[in-house]
Design a protein that fits this description.
two-stranded antiparallel ribbon, about 20% strand, 3 helices, two-stranded antiparallel sheet, alpha+beta
Protein backbone atom coordinates (compact mmCIF):
# COMPACT_ATOMS: atom_id res chain seq x y z
CA UNK A 1 0.00 0.00 0.00
CA UNK A 2 1.31 3.42 -0.98
CA UNK A 3 -0.06 6.86 -1.73
CA UNK A 4 -1.45 7.35 -5.25
CA UNK A 5 0.07 10.53 -6.67
CA UNK A 6 -3.18 11.45 -8.43
CA UNK A 7 -5.95 10.90 -5.86
CA UNK A 8 -3.71 11.15 -2.79
CA UNK A 9 -5.27 8.05 -1.19
CA UNK A 10 -3.45 5.08 0.26
CA UNK A 11 -4.05 2.24 -2.18
CA UNK A 12 -2.29 -0.60 -3.94
CA UNK A 13 -0.32 0.93 -6.80
CA UNK A 14 -0.05 -0.67 -10.24
CA UNK A 15 2.47 -0.75 -13.07
CA UNK A 16 1.34 2.47 -14.74
CA UNK A 17 2.75 3.25 -18.16
CA UNK A 18 4.04 6.78 -18.62
CA UNK A 19 3.07 6.72 -22.29
CA UNK A 20 -0.08 4.60 -22.50
CA UNK A 21 0.55 1.02 -23.58
CA UNK A 22 -1.94 1.29 -26.44
CA UNK A 23 0.26 3.91 -28.12
CA UNK A 24 2.86 1.30 -28.91
CA UNK A 25 0.58 0.28 -31.79
CA UNK A 26 -0.07 -3.22 -30.50
CA UNK A 27 3.40 -4.38 -31.43
CA UNK A 28 3.82 -6.57 -28.37
CA UNK A 29 6.86 -8.33 -29.80
CA UNK A 30 8.74 -5.12 -30.60
CA UNK A 31 11.42 -3.90 -28.27
CA UNK A 32 12.48 -0.31 -27.61
CA UNK A 33 15.84 1.11 -26.68
CA UNK A 34 15.58 3.18 -23.51
CA UNK A 35 18.57 5.50 -23.09
CA UNK A 36 19.62 7.12 -19.83
CA UNK A 37 20.81 10.51 -21.05
CA UNK A 38 22.71 11.27 -17.84
CA UNK A 39 24.78 8.10 -17.68
CA UNK A 40 24.77 7.05 -21.33
CA UNK A 41 23.50 3.60 -20.35
CA UNK A 42 20.67 1.88 -22.15
CA UNK A 43 18.25 -0.97 -21.68
CA UNK A 44 15.91 -2.78 -24.01
CA UNK A 45 12.25 -2.73 -23.01
CA UNK A 46 8.97 -3.97 -24.36
CA UNK A 47 6.16 -1.47 -24.81
CA UNK A 48 7.83 1.41 -23.09
CA UNK A 49 8.46 2.02 -19.44
CA UNK A 50 6.12 1.92 -16.52
CA UNK A 51 6.37 3.12 -12.97
CA UNK A 52 4.90 1.04 -10.16
CA UNK A 53 5.06 3.90 -7.65
CA UNK A 54 2.70 6.55 -9.00
CA UNK A 55 -0.90 5.46 -9.66
CA UNK A 56 -3.64 3.24 -8.31
CA UNK A 57 -5.71 1.16 -10.74
CA UNK A 58 -8.75 3.44 -10.54
CA UNK A 59 -6.85 6.62 -11.37
CA UNK A 60 -4.80 4.99 -14.11
CA UNK A 61 -7.57 3.04 -15.81
CA UNK A 62 -10.70 5.08 -15.20
CA UNK A 63 -9.65 8.70 -14.80
CA UNK A 64 -6.47 9.14 -16.81
CA UNK A 65 -7.59 6.26 -19.02
CA UNK A 66 -10.48 8.37 -20.30
CA UNK A 67 -8.01 11.03 -21.45
CA UNK A 68 -5.82 8.35 -23.05
CA UNK A 69 -8.80 7.02 -25.02
CA UNK A 70 -9.52 10.45 -26.50
CA UNK A 71 -5.85 10.97 -27.37
CA UNK A 72 -5.73 7.58 -29.08
CA UNK A 73 -9.01 8.17 -30.92
CA UNK A 74 -7.77 11.48 -32.34
CA UNK A 75 -4.17 10.51 -33.07
CA UNK A 76 -4.69 6.93 -34.30
CA UNK A 77 -8.36 6.84 -35.21
CA UNK A 78 -10.10 6.21 -38.50
CA UNK A 79 -9.03 9.18 -40.59
CA UNK A 80 -11.18 8.15 -43.55
CA UNK A 81 -14.20 9.78 -41.91
CA UNK A 82 -12.47 13.18 -41.79
CA UNK A 83 -12.14 15.67 -44.60
CA UNK A 84 -8.97 15.10 -46.64
CA UNK A 85 -7.05 18.20 -47.68
CA UNK A 86 -4.32 17.94 -50.35
CA UNK A 87 -1.78 20.61 -49.36
CA UNK A 88 1.33 18.86 -50.59
CA UNK A 89 1.79 15.84 -52.89
CA UNK A 90 3.89 13.96 -50.30
CA UNK A 91 1.68 14.54 -47.24
CA UNK A 92 -1.88 13.79 -46.28
CA UNK A 93 -3.63 16.27 -44.04
CA UNK A 94 -7.04 15.65 -42.54
CA UNK A 95 -9.34 18.27 -41.15
CA UNK A 96 -11.09 17.38 -37.92
CA UNK A 97 -13.93 19.67 -36.93
CA UNK A 98 -14.11 20.87 -33.36
CA UNK A 99 -17.43 19.04 -32.97
CA UNK A 100 -15.55 15.75 -33.39
CA UNK A 101 -13.08 16.37 -30.57
CA UNK A 102 -13.53 16.47 -26.83
CA UNK A 103 -11.03 19.29 -26.45
CA UNK A 104 -10.91 19.10 -22.65
CA UNK A 105 -10.10 15.38 -22.67
CA UNK A 106 -7.53 15.80 -25.45
CA UNK A 107 -5.80 18.63 -23.60
CA UNK A 108 -5.80 16.58 -20.38
CA UNK A 109 -4.34 13.63 -22.32
CA UNK A 110 -1.23 15.61 -23.28
CA UNK A 111 -0.96 17.15 -19.81
CA UNK A 112 -1.31 13.74 -18.14
CA UNK A 113 1.62 12.28 -20.08
CA UNK A 114 3.83 15.20 -19.07
CA UNK A 115 2.57 14.89 -15.49
CA UNK A 116 3.28 11.12 -15.32
CA UNK A 117 6.77 11.64 -16.74
CA UNK A 118 7.47 14.49 -14.33
CA UNK A 119 6.42 12.63 -11.16
CA UNK A 120 8.09 9.38 -12.15
CA UNK A 121 11.32 8.55 -10.33
CA UNK A 122 12.49 6.37 -13.22
CA UNK A 123 15.82 7.53 -14.58
CA UNK A 124 14.64 7.62 -18.21
CA UNK A 125 12.13 10.36 -17.32
CA UNK A 126 14.42 12.34 -15.04
CA UNK A 127 14.86 15.19 -17.55
CA UNK A 128 11.11 15.91 -17.47
CA UNK A 129 10.39 18.28 -14.61
CA UNK A 130 7.29 20.40 -14.21
CA UNK A 131 8.54 21.80 -10.93
CA UNK A 132 5.80 23.22 -8.75
CA UNK A 133 3.23 22.91 -11.52
CA UNK A 134 2.63 19.16 -11.14
CA UNK A 135 -0.30 19.52 -8.74
CA UNK A 136 -1.77 22.52 -10.54
CA UNK A 137 -1.73 20.89 -13.99
CA UNK A 138 -4.01 18.01 -13.10
CA UNK A 139 -6.74 20.47 -12.09
CA UNK A 140 -6.97 21.61 -15.69
Amino acid sequence: MSICKFCGQEKKLINAHIIPKKFYLGLSEDKYLCINSKEGKYSIQQQGGYDSNILCANCDNHILGEFDKEGYRILFGDFSKYKYIQVHPQYKVYQIDNTEIDYVKLRKFFISILWRASISKLEEWSNINLGGYEKMLMKY
